């Protein structure tokens, strides 16, 4: 550029800037949120993210370029009809693995997808996972926020937090339309290159006609993807979560109720009441926060050496156990190991002692790995009114053997093949 050109270019730039000055003042003007509280701003941001997540499935879908990819997954599921739900409830006959027919949705994402569809799917999945990670983070940190507000005499914030704690116990949130819940679940599952559900294991020689079943999901991992996947394909299942999440994590509970997930608590009184009223099917994560603590990439670990409570309840109330193992869950996050005494102490306070690091850009998002949820054959449990310690230990070993068999069959052909099955 010569010196003669500079004044001309400067004049053109000045003219364009003056022409767009009114629009520039509007775009750069700060939003009038000065009088809005932090809680309201957080809710506003969450609502905006939620709308952006579900927008591709709303009547305004033509306005969003991400709609074709995820809407195509919904159309693929509708084309399969009602068969996936039936397969999710009935074990595969003859003990053969139902890899192809047991997939309840088109989860494989291969190179045949168009670039626009692949980018749209990943972008929508990132929105869904970001929203879920935000809910998880808020649920974990709310008790600390309550203690801080009490210590600093922030009475308005304290009142708001206490009201939030009481809200799900007083008011039951109505479920969102089914299209919205399907949109979220497909967004979550679309983050992974492949996510499939298979039935493995051979049924017992004398299968039980009892309809009461308790699905036991391993490993816990950070987010327990198996527990996130199962309710979407078995809407009738009741997911029993830790008492802390059920009673003292209102954001998590409200979020689950909006998605239509039936929740319960693994607390002794709550679980006893559910089993006495013959709620079935139900699902639990027996390893709990301790199993989340020992999560480590490149390993397959379960926390069952001192876990016998769910065996005792199953014997007392006559529930068959269905072992489930999510292959790939342990590879989604890096989680530093060590300092066990301190971490076990935190687990005793119902605090998950984890330091997860997943996707490099957004560490609270999992890494994009291939996932397989393996559902084993039901393990018949005799009904014993007052099971002794010997009874519990005997059937705990039976369950552990069934879970190991489910794991060994599920890891074939996956990145976890050849890894030892560690029982802590």
From TrEMBL:
InterPro entries: DAGAT (IPR007130). Pfam families: DAGAT. The chain crosses the membrane at residues 43-64, 122-145, 344-365. It is found in: Endoplasmic reticulum membrane. Pathway: Glycerolipid metabolism; triacylglycerol biosynthesis; Lipid metabolism. It is a multi-pass membrane protein. Keywords: Acyltransferase, Endoplasmic reticulum, Glycerol metabolism, Lipid biosynthesis, Lipid metabolism, Membrane, Transferase, Transmembrane, Transmembrane helix. Belongs to the diacylglycerol acyltransferase family. This is Acyltransferase.
């Amino acid at each position: 550029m010569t010196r003669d050109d500079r004044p001309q270019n400067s004049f053109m730039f000045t003219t364009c800037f003056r022409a767009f000055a009114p629009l520039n003042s509007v775009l750069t003007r700060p939003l009038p949120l000065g009088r809005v509280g932090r809680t309201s701003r957080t809710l506003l941001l969450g609502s905006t993210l939620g709308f952006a997540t579900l927008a591709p499935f709303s009547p305004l879908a033509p306005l969003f370029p991400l709609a074709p990819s995820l809407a195509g997954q919904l159309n693929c599921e509708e084309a399969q009809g009602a068969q996936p739900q039936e397969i999710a409830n009935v074990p595969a006959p003859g003990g053969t693995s139902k890899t192809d027919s047991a997939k309840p949705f088109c989860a494989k994402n291969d190179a045949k997808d168009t670039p626009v569809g692949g980018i749209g799917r990943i972008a929508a999945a990132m929105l869904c996972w970001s929203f879920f990670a935000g809910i998880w983070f808020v649920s974990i940190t709310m008790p600390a926020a309550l203690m801080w507000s009490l210590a600093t005499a922030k009475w308005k914030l304290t009142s708001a937090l206490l009201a939030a704690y009481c809200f799900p116990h007083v008011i039951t949130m109505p479920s969102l339309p089914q299209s919205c819940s399907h949109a979220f679940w497909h967004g979550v599952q679309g983050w992974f290159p492949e996510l499939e559900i298979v039935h493995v294991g051979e049924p017992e020689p004398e299968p039980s006609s009892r309809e009461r079943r308790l699905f036991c999901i391993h490993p816990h991992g950070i987010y327990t993807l198996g527990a996130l996947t199962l309710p979407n394909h078995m809407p009738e299942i009741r997911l029993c979560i830790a008492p802390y999440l059920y009673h003292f994590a209102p954001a998590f509970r409200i979020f689950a109720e909006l998605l239509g997930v039936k929740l319960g608590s693994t607390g002794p009184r709550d679980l006893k009441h559910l089993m006495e009223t013959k709620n079935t099917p139900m699902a639990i994560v027996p390893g709990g926060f301790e199993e989340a603590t020992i999560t480590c990439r490149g390993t397959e670990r379960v926390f069952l050496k001192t876990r016998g409570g769910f065996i005792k309840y199953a014997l007392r109330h006559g529930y068959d156990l269905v072992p489930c193992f999510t292959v790939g869950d342990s590879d989604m996050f890096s989680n530093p190991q060590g300092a066990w005494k301190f971490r076990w102490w935190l687990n005793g306070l119902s605090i998950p002692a984890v330091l997860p690091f997943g996707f490099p850009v957004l560490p609270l998002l999992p890494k994009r790995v291939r996932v397989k949820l393996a559902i084993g054959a039901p393990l018949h449990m005799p009904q014993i009114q007052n099971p002794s310690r010997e009874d519990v230990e005997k059937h705990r070993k039976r369950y552990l053997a069934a879970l190991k068999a489910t794991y060994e069959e599920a890891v074939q052909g996956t990145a976890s093949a050849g890894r030892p099955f560690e029982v802590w």
